[in-house]
Amino acid sequence: MVASWISLVGFGLGIMMTNQGLLEPLQERLRATVIGEGQPATLASLLRFSPWVVIAAFALLVGFWFLRTPSRAAYQGGWSWPVTGLAIGLVLGTVAGPLVWWRWGEADVALAVGLTVFAACSTATVTAMALPWLLDSFALDPAFGSGPLATVIQDLLSILIYFAIAIAVVQ
Length: 171
Hints:
Layout: H1 2-20, H2 24-31, E1 34-35, E2 39-40, H3 43-47, H4 51-67, H5 81-104, H6 107-137, H7 148-169
Antiparallel strand pairs: 1-2
Helix pairs in contact: 1-2, 1-7, 5-6, 6-7
């Protein structure tokens, strides 16, 4: 219940910042991107790929993530979860940045997107590991930190990271 309220407040603050605050110029720039005869921009239409290609790419990334399940080998010197998050963030950021630059030809937007994807993936993994540990150190149930609460915190951090990088890089 607390996570729902935190999410709702964060969503409301994001709307206020986007419509009337610091992020209004960024919102106008994003809304100016229209495909074809007034069609709204979607990821598939912006990349000029079939939506199924985009879905398949995301499915492969999710599959890579789930193949990296904790096992005995992970505790005996295999890749750790933070390294996996950094690797996924690096791959996605390295792919997203050049794609955005190729599509729009704007280096500042491409840099903002690439850095944001890298940072959001990295912080999401650290949050997913640190939150249950933190709750356990306060003698609280660590399972509470691995569900919706972790997701809400990861989403809020990702949004804050995106806006901070976009404001700093896109002029």
